[in-house]
Design a protein that fits this description.
The complex is a heterodimer. Helix content of chain A is 41%, strand content 21%. Chain A contains six helices and six strands, in the order αβαβαβαβαββα. The termini of chain A are far apart. Chain B is globular, with a radius of gyration of 21 Å. The chains are: A alpha/beta, B mainly beta. At the A-B interface, α3 and α5 of A face loops of B.
């Protein structure tokens, strides 16, 4: 007959400890909230919006007009913090520190943010819009009724107001 | 055929490791690759690349050139260094690459920004053709960079300490370098420059885009002239195309900003002394946009009329969407025979070259799963074109395709994640795989795409 000894199981506690320390070190290593954008991420972003309206902004650290747009959007969001806005940087996620620095500067560090995490960029671009040629900045407005509109180049407040169908606080 | 392919793949390299075994079997299993498998590199397979694997297959954004003896040279970026290597068998085996910059620096390496390599066809007194290399050094802060140049006069064994060619001493953008040598031996470096943007911004004045600048070396890269400005208000993020114009001058083709914000193209003729002999608008696409297209143009001089230049570019303007071809004439400073080449959204990065009276236009497309290279030919200097054919496709990431000219013909230079660095004959006929009966059909793959 086998003898049974009660043995304390430390595994859950150990896992918890491990998880905590991992989270802690991850938080230390990554001050930003940037997520890796893969071929499935666009669907995930749209699904997370739950059919509601939102604005998707595509940008790159290597695109001077994008920075003009981010500065503008930083100002718009400061005055209109309820505008649902998601950012996707087309730079490799290895450049996240530089991207995070820009987002911080423009007051957009708190916005849901993604970066391209597969250097087969054609496929990632295609997953967002097969008819997008890759020019930046590029914006998509999802109106909450299943429609989306696109815009290449810097957005302006007039366009945003017409998309969101409400005047922006100036 | 398969036996020949396998035997070539298993011959192994003299100086670099052979393709690993799993790769040989994978290649053998891919029927569509058979035709071009013989041209596949014998270097390291990209999946096996780690930070220590320095080879053109593992590196990024290669460019290539032949010397007068038919030796193929490449420059590529690996871990903050520009490397140069050579091959005596058209890219099957490669020499041990030599670092151009001994001190690592952030050399730009993306589709529109790559190290450039040129081999002087005149061996001079050293018995070695000089090797010229240029690249863009990314500097901090944002969007700044410097135009770097180095040369080797001992056959690629050593390179001179890299030198900065932009002479303004400003921490401003100097990027998208293009390197070209004229028939008379003058070396031109052309780039996109933001010194005027900076000066205007500092003075509180508005300034659209960037500027095009250049410098000339009359002593084979030993020294460069002061910088000359070609034009204010260029687009900021597209490569500049260069072609010869007479023995001493060059023609350039770039994306410019016309009017308030129309990002169409311009052509100019540059002279060694800094005078701009001609400048003209070369495309009327009406692309009014506050954005970075990241799609640079291409240009090749006509082999029939020295005043005519084949152009290809990308636009998404009101008038034109997709890749276009046109032929610019210096005689009337206009672009003729403008033809729509490919309107698929994934199409881009065209490359033009001429060989033996035929114009070749190569570009990359994407169908949602695969990137494929497509080729069209014109036997009447661009007035009419063959139907496009698909050469080769990859379902992984790839660089922009380039065409490299040698005395014997044209070659495809294409870096892919899947196959490593592909260097394969394009014209006058494929040196491998199926060749069409008229002997003038370049086939890299066996898949022929439709219009």
């Amino acid at each position: 007959m086998r003898r049974h000894h009660w043995k304390p199981d430390w595994r859950p506690a150990a896992h918890l400890l491990l998880a905590c320390s991992c989270l802690l070190s991850a938080a230390q290593a990554r001050a930003d909230n940037i997520r890796p954008f893969t071929a499935d991420s666009f669907k995930e972003i749209v699904a997370a919006s739950d059919g509601g309206e939102f604005l998707l902004g595509l940008w790159s650290v290597d695109c001077p007009p994008c920075l003009v747009e981010l500065r503008l959007m930083g100002g718009v969001l400061k005055r209109n913090p309820d505008l649902p806005y998601v950012l996707v940087s087309t730079d490799p996620i290895e450049d996240r520190d530089l991207a995070a620095e820009f987002l911080e500067d423009f007051g957009l560090a708190g916005i849901e943010s993604w970066m391209f995490a597969d250097h087969f960029v054609e496929r990632l671009r295609h997953s967002i819009d097969p008819n997008w040629y890759g020019e930046l900045p590029r914006s998509y407005f999802f109106d909450g009724n299943g429609n989306r509109e696109s815009h290449s180049g810097i957005v302006n407040e007039e366009l945003l107001a017409s998309w969101f169908k409400r005047p922006l606080i100036e | 055929m398969m036996k020949a392919v396998m035997s070539r793949l298993t011959q192994g390299a003299q100086r670099t490791p052979a393709w690993p075994r799993p790769w040989r079997s994978r290649l053998a299993g891919l029927a569509f690759l058979v035709a071009f498998a013989a041209a596949l590199p014998a270097g390291a397979e990209p999946g096996n690349c780690d930070s220590r694997s320095v080879s053109v297959h593992c590196g990024a954004t290669p460019s290539a050139a032949f010397d007068a003896d038919g030796r193929l040279w490449v420059a590529f970026v690996h871990d903050q260094q520009v490397f140069v290597g050579h091959s005596d068998d058209l890219g099957r085996n490669w020499s041990e690459p030599v670092a151009v910059n001994p001190i690592p620096e952030d050399a730009e390496h993306n589709g529109e920004n790559r190290p450039k390599i040129l081999i002087d066809q005149d061996q001079g007194s050293t018995n070695h053709p000089a090797i010229y290399v240029s690249w863009t050094l990314k500097t901090s802060p944002r969007f700044t960079g410097e135009i770097r140049f180095s040369r080797s006069t001992d056959g690629g064994k050593t390179f001179s300490a890299p030198r900065t060619v932009n002479d303004d001493g400003l921490l401003a953008g100097h990027r998208f370098d293009s390197l070209f040598q004229t028939e008379s031996g003058l070396l031109y470096l052309t780039w996109i420059d933001k010194r005027d943007l900076k000066a205007n911004t500092d003075a509180g004045e508005p300034y659209k885009g960037a500027a095009i600048y250049y410098a000339v070396s009359k002593d084979r890269g030993k020294t460069f002239s002061p910088n000359h400005r070609v034009a204010n208000h260029s687009c900021e993020c597209c490569r500049i195309a260069v072609a010869p114009r007479g023995p001493d001058n060059i023609a350039i083709f770039w994306r410019h900003i016309f009017g308030a914000n129309t990002r169409d193209h311009a052509v100019a003729e540059l002279t060694p002394g800094g005078a701009i002999a001609l400048m003209a608008r070369a495309s009327h696409d009406e692309w009014r946009i506050d954005a970075c297209p990241h799609h640079g143009p291409t240009m090749a001089q006509s082999a029939i009329s020295e005043d005519d230049y084949h152009l290809s570019w990308f636009s998404n303007g009101e008038a034109h969407q997709g890749i276009y071809y046109g032929r610019f004439s210096f005689a009337d400073a206009r672009t003729h025979d403008v033809i729509h080449i490919d309107g698929m959204a994934g199409a881009g990065h065209p490359f033009l070259e001429t060989y033996d009276g035929t114009v070749y236009l190569l570009w990359k497309g994407f169908d949602g799963n695969k990137s494929s290279l497509r080729l069209m030919r014109s036997h009447d200097d661009g007035a009419s074109w063959s139907a496009p054919e698909t050469l080769v496709a990859t379902s992984q990431a790839s660089d922009h395709p380039l065409i490299v000219k040698s005395g014997q013909g044209l070659h495809l230079s294409w870096h892919t994640d899947e196959f490593g660095y592909i260097f394969a004959p394009l014209a006058p006929r494929a040196g491998f795989g199926a060749t069409q009966p008229d002997g003038d059909h370049a086939r890299v793959g066996v898949d022929t795409g439709g219009g």
